[in-house]
Amino acid sequence: MSSAKEPRTQLTIPTITTSQSTPQTPREQRGDDWQFFWVTREWMTTCYDKHKFSEKQLICHFRNDFELTRKDFLIKNYKKARKAKEKSGVDVASEFNFIPSSYVLPAEYHLFVEEFRKYPTDTIWIMKPVAGAQGKGIFLFRKLKHVQEWKKKDSSGSEALPYVVQSYIHNPYLVGGKKFDVRIYVLVTSFRPMNAWVHREGFARFSHSRYSTDSVDDAFVHLTNVAVAKTAADYDPERGLKWSLPKLMRFFKSMHGHSKVSKLMNDLAKVIIESLRSVQNLIIQDTHCFELYGYDILFDENLKPWLLEVNASPSLTASSQEDFELKYRVLNHMIDVLDIDKKLLGNENEVGGFDILVRNNKPVEICKVARHNQPFFTPQLNLRLGKLVF
Fold it and tell me: By mean pLDDT, which of 48-57, 73-82, 167-176, 233-242 is the weakest?
């Protein structure tokens, strides 16, 4: 930790695997004598196809996970799935509506302008770089001229850097007057058939300043990224800009009751499952690959979950001791689910902090909130998700 005021610990897989009693040797010495390799996205792109792996060796990414984790591909695949649902007779406005109206610029600029003119003049929109992180490059606007200025400023040669533009969720749920989003850890061990797990101990990240739409230029009001909050002159890591997911759910229950929170969790599960299904036939299935995704979700004032993005490499850097312990547990439990030592039977509903969400393409019933034996993804979930066709 760097200081008493701002504890910060970089989590590493060797730290986790050592606690699992898995012998570690330097990469250049181990040759093929390994079971688990935590690699970067760049390594997957440049090196994966050059290697042959033994049956038991596992790599932490799918080869084309960008179909889900790059914002422009996420939106493309969401729109494609939504259109297919609509053609099959599904009321997509109520049954398949979890990403705000979105366009990829500059390719869909004219379509965006057409949509922009249908909205009231005071509507707020948000621009995000398709492969950005930590809030970098994000800005909000109300007037079309700001996008036109961005096009001119961001152009390099004949083509601007791709961005996603979305209608801004103007009515977020507030706690203490502050906006927040939720990070949820989803582990996919296979896409075909789909096998997915969700961890009980995600967390909520709060904005640094109280929410207001008076100014669209104040990142401390509109963005919840820790990297953004840390740049504030009065930033204090002890102020508590994070809540655990169980704590947030307890707060929701105290404010709205059990039935509304059960519906919220049902809706959240459906968002995760449908987003995975939208890329199920696109992701290159490989028995050597798995992925720990960081889902970022925002709840509006009606407790409706909106999918903001899916991260292929969720940050493993801890901003506090509590944050370190949470992420340590997530990684430790992830290795338990992967079952490197082949100790599991294969029909478990929970392993460590992970609950099975989808097994062999079918939603699974038994899920609980960590340590409280309360419903997490409740039995009612199955009454709704049982109608899904995999």
Answer: 233-242
Give the whole-number percent of the chain exceeding pLDDT 70: 75
Helix axes 144-154, 109-116, angle to 10 degrees: 160
pTM: 0.85
Same domain, 133 and 21: no
Q: Is the domain of 276 the same as that of 361?
A: yes
Question: For residue 128, what is the enclosing H or E element?
Answer: strand 125-129
Same domain, 68 and 138: no
pLDDT at 387 over 60: no
189: exposed, middle or buried (C-beta count within 10 Å: 0-12, 13-18, 19+)?
Answer: middle
How many other CB atoms are found less than 10 A from the CB of residue 15? 16
Output the pLDDT for position 214. 83
Tell me what pLDDT residue 30 has.
Answer: 53
Residues 6+ apart with CB under 8 A from 261: 249, 252, 253, 303
- Whole-angstrom Cα Rg for the chain: 21
The stretches of the chain forming alpha helices (DSSP H) are 13-19, 27-30, 41-46, 66-69, 71-87, 92-95, 109-116, 144-154, 219-222, 226-229, 245-256, 258-277, 321-338, 379-385
What gap in Å lies between CA 308 and CA 304, rounded to an integer? 13
Give the pLDDT score at 233.
46
**Secondary structure in 3-state letters for 100-118:** CCEEEECCCHHHHHHHHCC
Please tell me the distance from the alpha carbon of residue 191 to that of residue 61, in angstroms, as a whole number. Answer: 12
Q: Which amino acid is at 127?
A: M
CA atoms of 197 and 213, how far apart (whole Å): 37
* pLDDT value at residue 254: 96
3: in domain: no
Residue 2 falls within a domain, yes or no? no
Q: Are residues 252 and 319 in the same domain?
A: yes
pLDDT of 277 > 90? The answer is yes
Rounded to whole angstroms, how far apart are CA atoms 122 and 138? 19
Question: What does the buried/exposed string (b/e) look like for 63-83 if buried means 16 or more CB atoms within 10 Å of the residue's CB?
Answer: bbbbbbbbbbbbbbbbeebbe
